[in-house]
């Protein structure tokens, strides 16, 4: 439907279906648990996945399908599925690839919720995770791949310090080893970075962030391309015949076998359903993604320019900022801009962070990122609060670190609020 259209057009139209009854132009909220079978035999066909008609909203709701297809289209993928949160997206994406005894490689720069999951419930389920330095070279990644490795997992822009993964390098590793690259593209969004173009097989989003954009929905998405060869050695579950002699996912869906299995088995069995009311709000957010991202990036640059020289600020973390050893990677991966998370380290440590945050008036002190509103948080006492001090420091979470998610308000107003809150904190 959208072949040839630009991103700005597709963010408004891709995946939309005009409802045949009422002709509604805006995708309606299909708030229905299930869908009436036309007959006894029709029900059996729907359950066997042999009908274009749907059966049940747990994994197949018309409003959700439009939003999933729109995100997939913007990412350059073939299809996608929505789940209840970004966390659910990560869990489902990995559970559809790996089982007890399997191994997953990650970069050492990941959102703390993801790190908690891989150290916690996924480790208890028998999955082994191994983190390589984000700047490890291609040969080191290839050498780390084992016969049991089922995925290479990275964030395009890592939360909270903004380290940028070299997706082109990881895409080459994936092609050389037959291990799929799975990328959490939440912070970049498809407007700034499209991992599938660099060789990723699967892209994950917390749609709670910039895609939704208004801080009003929690959700997640998993989208996939169809170019990856899912080998029977690493992914036997995609090659096993289905019940009643039906062909395997690989035989039936080829390069999309992973996605078909994810939707029809993993999401159906675990049931992390995305509410269609949230999909309606998500679609409204996506319609303005490019406009918001341009403004988010411009405002982040204004904050960077104001805070880098500020005497109370020891360092600003933003891809390409002063001191970023991987600025060249950011330039290659994110030519349109590097998102809108700006993290600052205050000379005065934790006490300075407390004073700064408690004085903010416009910027809200809360957990969340990617909102139209500017938000700030001391991650060391919240998101990273369960870690020991040495673990925080190993991740670059110093006592005076504050993460700012720069919103789309007038840049001068954001900068003025940050500056008044920094007043008097100079060493
Ligand atoms: C990069 C990244 N991925 C995933 C998540 C989890 O998303 P959610 O809060 O929607 O579960 C977050 C949350 O902050 C995140 O920053």
Automatic annotation (TrEMBL):
It comes from the Bacteria. It is an enzyme of class 4 (lyase). Its cofactor is pyridoxal 5'-phosphate. One of its GO terms (biological process) is L-homocysteine biosynthetic process. GO terms for cellular component: cytoplasm. Keywords: Pyridoxal phosphate, Transferase. The modification N6-(pyridoxal phosphate)lysine is found at residue 209. SUPFAM superfamilies: PLP-dependent transferases. Its EC number is 4.4.1.2. The keyword Transcription regulation does not apply. It catalyses: L-methionine + H2O = methanethiol + 2-oxobutanoate + NH4(+); L-homocysteine + H2O = 2-oxobutanoate + hydrogen sulfide + NH4(+) + H(+). GO terms for molecular function: cysteine synthase activity; homocysteine desulfhydrase activity; methionine gamma-lyase activity; O-acetylhomoserine aminocarboxypropyltransferase activity; pyridoxal phosphate binding. InterPro entries: Cys/Met-Metab_PyrdxlP-dep_enz, OAc-hSer/O-AcSer_sulfhydrylase, PyrdxlP-dep_Trfase, PyrdxlP-dep_Trfase_major, PyrdxlP-dep_Trfase_small. Belongs to the trans-sulfuration enzymes family. This is homocysteine desulfhydrase. It comes from Agrococcus pavilionensis RW1. The lineage of its organism: Bacteria, Bacillati, Actinomycetota, Actinomycetes, Micrococcales.
């Amino acid at each position: 439907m959208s072949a040839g259209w630009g991103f700005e057009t597709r963010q408004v139209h891709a995946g939309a279906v005009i409802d045949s009854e009422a002709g509604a132009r805006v995708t309606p909220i299909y708030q229905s648990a299930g869908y009436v079978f036309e007959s006894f035999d029709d029900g059996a066909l729907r359950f066997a996945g042999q009908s274009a008609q749907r059966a049940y909203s747990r994994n197949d709701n018309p409003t959700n399908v439009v939003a999933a297809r729109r995100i997939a289209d913007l990412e350059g993928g073939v299809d996608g599925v929505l789940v209840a949160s970004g966390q659910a997206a990560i869990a489902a994406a990995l559970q559809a690839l790996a089982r007890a005894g399997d191994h997953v490689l990650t970069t050492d720069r990941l959102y703390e919720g993801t790190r908690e999951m891989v150290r916690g419930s996924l480790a208890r389920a028998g999955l082994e995770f191994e983190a390589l330095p984000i700047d490890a070279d291609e040969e080191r990644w290839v050498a780390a791949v084992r016969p049991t490795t089922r995925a290479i997992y990275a964030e395009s822009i890592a939360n909270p310090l903004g380290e940028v993964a070299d997706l082109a390098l990881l895409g080459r590793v994936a092609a050389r080893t037959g291990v799929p690259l799975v990328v959490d593209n939440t912070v970049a969004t498809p407007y700034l970075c499209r991992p599938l173009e660099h060789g990723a097989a699967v892209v994950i989003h917390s749609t709670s962030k910039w895609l939704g954009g208004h801080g009003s929905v929690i959700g997640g998405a998993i989208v996939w391309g169809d170019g990856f060869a899912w080998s029977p050695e690493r992914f036997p579950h995609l090659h096993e015949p289905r019940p009643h002699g039906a062909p395997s996912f690989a035989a039936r869906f080829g390069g999309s076998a992973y996605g078909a299995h994810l939707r029809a088995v993993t999401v159906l069995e675990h049931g992390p359903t995305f509410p269609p009311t949230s999909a309606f709000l998500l679609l409204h957010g996506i319609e303005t993604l490019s406009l918001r991202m341009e403004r988010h990036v411009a405002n982040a640059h204004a904050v960077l320019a104001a805070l880098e020289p500020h005497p109370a600020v020891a360092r600003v973390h933003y891809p390409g900022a002063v001191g970023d050893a991987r600025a060249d990677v950011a330039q290659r991966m994110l030519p349109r801009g590097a998102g809108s998370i700006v993290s600052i380290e205050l000379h005065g440590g934790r006490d300075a962070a407390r004073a700064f945050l408690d004085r903010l008036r416009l910027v809200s002190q809360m957990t969340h990122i990617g909102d139209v509103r500017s938000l700030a948080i001391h991650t060391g006492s919240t998101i990273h609060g369960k870690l020991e001090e040495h673990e925080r420091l190993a991740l670059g979470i110093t006592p005076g670190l504050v993460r700012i998610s720069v919103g789309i308000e007038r840049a001068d107003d954001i900068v003025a609020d940050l500056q008044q809150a920094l007043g008097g904190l100079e060493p």
